[in-house]
User: Fold Aldehyde decarbonylase protein from Dioscorea alata.
Amino acid sequence: MATKPGFLTNWPWQSLGNFKYLVLAPWVVDGAHKAMKQGWDVDISYLAIFPSLLFRMVHNQLWISLSRFQNARSKHRILDRSLDFDQVDRERNWDDQIIFNGLLFYLGHMYIPGANNLPIWRMDGWIIIMVLHAGPVEFLYYWFHRALHHHFLYSRYHSHHHASIVTEPITSVIHPFAEHIVYYLLFAIPMYASIYTRTCSILGLFFYVVYLDFMNNMGHCNFELVPNWLFTVFPPLKYLMYTPSYHSLHHTQFRTNYSLFMPFYDYIYNTMDKSSDCLYENSLKGKEEKCDVVHLTHPTTLQSIYHLRFGFASFASKPYNSKWYMLLVWPLSFVSMFFTWIWGSCFTVERNKLKNLIMQTWAIPRYSFQYELSWEKDAINDLIEKAVLEADCKGVKVLSLGLLNQGRELNGNGELYLQKHPKLNVRIIDGSSLAAALVLKSIPSGTKQVVIAGTLFKIGCAIATELCKKGIQVSVTCKPDFHYLKSRLSDSTGTHLTLTRNYTAQVWLIGEGIDHKEQKKAPKGAIFIPFLQFPLKKVREDCTYYSTPAMKVPNALENMHSCENWLPRRVMSAWRVAGIIHALEGWNEHECGDTMLDINKVWDAAILHGFLPLNQV
Assistant:
């Protein structure tokens, strides 16, 4: 929102929320009806409007995904500053201008003489469109843009756009409704001229809109992608096409580089930023960056691929929750599964920064269900091993294993890679000690008895041991786990461990394998505290369910604008935080296999660095 929102700031359909697309429904339905009724005699230019809008949606989304993917890994980043949830929320309505475009095209088809029954292509019409764009459109936009930077219009309108210092492709279309009205009036000049001269064509209009989208998206990427050889081969091009670094200076300096796509008006009126060429060359050259911490995760469900940072921004900025309407894109989901299946290595999902620590999140191209397939075990281990060796080669200090990448049956909680490569410099962390610490700190003070349900594994055993040492009665429901724990405890401590079917305790610690029946055995008002990687499915309305072990991140942690799976904003899983703490403290030991760090030491270090438990008692 602008500093002092002016007249026509909000879009007319803002109150409709996600139902705003119904604004176009009358024309879409009418077009479908005419196509069925008239067959080949239908006006193709009328039917082409809706597919062109869908193409624009896909085109813009591809730019969003490309930009986010590149900014997480590219050395050609222009501006190394944090992007936050406020910007993501502010830019959520990037598709409003596509709806507006559709309305104008439908109304134009109805009321503008000569806008019906257009030919597929005419070269003379395309030339008229591009000449008029380079002339009147660029010229008028330049002066309108300068006017928008006057304090009166800037505070009421244009400051909304400039609230985004670090730009993304969709930043290009984040303007108040009033600004978009003026922009479309400008862009209508070449389109109407071609209609008036009877040289307009369907592809001519379509290519012009695609050109506008392409240049808008390209110019607002926060990485340089325009190769220098283009300007070497054709030097005048520097006056006809801007670059992402050129426009980035407008968002940091505000009073320079006003041009739309063609910088020659900045040259004419002496408003080109003097550092434009230098920034372009430096961004193109890039800056190598050493990553300190890598968190190795993987997609969970087929729909989760859209929740990744480079997926749908509106999904990634909220805790993951399966949506019924995402079933509509199930063919695309299966295509993505096929590509991940054949993909030969992990890919970078996210880049964060805390103090001087550079962190990245890498994803193994496998879904959760694939980890349960016995015949996929070797392939997955090969992918994880390849990621470990790549991290070691790049000088990464710590690699934390997330979700199913640290399975006991898969790789012995990461021990397999140490056995195969004993001279690794990168520290492998499974985060067990911090996860156990968070569960222990989540238990309400004064608790005298707890039930540990499900399979314990490494974290559950550590939790049970610590509770027994504190004199808290621990009731275990799994007989093999009971005997294993009993053998590890001293006689005095072991008296607090029991194998029981008594489910009267109010605090339940949940491991793997607990079913709905067992949850229903808990007393009314019970607290379920999982030490699982995945959230526990809620089947009781009369009980309290805690989150999986996780921590709120300090404000100093940069570039947090997507949610980690099902966790709330600015919250990280214990397994991910553990790797960061390990690097911040400079610890040299591994934490994998049966090895665990001192629980209290890890907890104190996490609190010292500003991390706070999500489940605070």
